[in-house]
């Protein structure tokens, strides 16, 4: 049985290698994928403009609690449905493939612990503000925020993991190194999608930092999806991450921290780079060649030591991140 599986795997790789010679260069494909995703991002921005928001206000006034994120939720969900129907009708995606899972949803979500730890830090601090400092919160916004983050996770993961990453690997994943390159390039596409936030009122600096953070997070999400083949799990991880981050921003928009602008910039750069390094190391850990093979091979002592080294490095960097985060919140209050 094992020998038959190996023969079939080798045949699949050979077929991919033959087909990849006929396909365009991977970096040209990456540029085209980035351009298409940016166009979709700009389309989303246009639909979130004041004109469309005014139209949607009348449509959803009696449907949702009419929080400040309700219009974005409807727009994101509508655009997802349109793209899904187009992708299915033109056979851009294989629906049956998206339904196949190698690992259960809960186990796959737990694999994202470094990503969720970072967002949980901000979330827990905002809860402290609400519970102990009696910060005024517009609770009407919370439901619409949760719905919007779920739609963002659904929309972006369907595009970046369900379509872009799968297409990259399908066309160019002829070897272990090329699979790594495919996942990395799809995470770059995911990060570059956030450039459109500059045209939505974000500063250039904030847009660059958000793009860097998104590339690191996308690398982890791509690695988890490749390991688990569970698209639903990365949608939930993405949504949870966004909910915690945006909830904290909802709270801290009402708090004045006496931080000099130069210090604030330095902190943003530091946090963004630490996140990028941590998430990249953890993604490489998930994508070690032995981790992608049978469980029997993973008993090798060298692999175990390498996994421990990756894990210890990630934990140490997260501890440094935690200390710096606490300093930012409590020292400059």
Written account of the structure:
This protein has one domain. Helix content is 78%, strand content 0%. It has 13 helices and no strands. Helix 8 packs across helix 11, helix 10 packs parallel to helix 12 and helix 12 runs antiparallel to helix 13. The chain starts with a helix and ends with a helix. The N terminus is likely disordered.
* Biggest sheet layout: none
- Average pLDDT, rounded to a whole number, is 81
Tell me the structural class: mainly alpha
How many independent structural domains? 1
Strand content: under 5%
End-to-end separation in angstroms reads 64 Å
In total, the number of strands is 0
H and E string: HHHHHHHHHHHHH
From the spread of the alpha carbons, the general shape counts as globular
Q: Kindly state the percentage of residues in helix.
A: over 70%
Rg over CA atoms, rounded to whole Å, is: 21 Å
The parts where pLDDT drops under 50 for at least 5 residues are 1-7
Q: Helix count?
A: 13
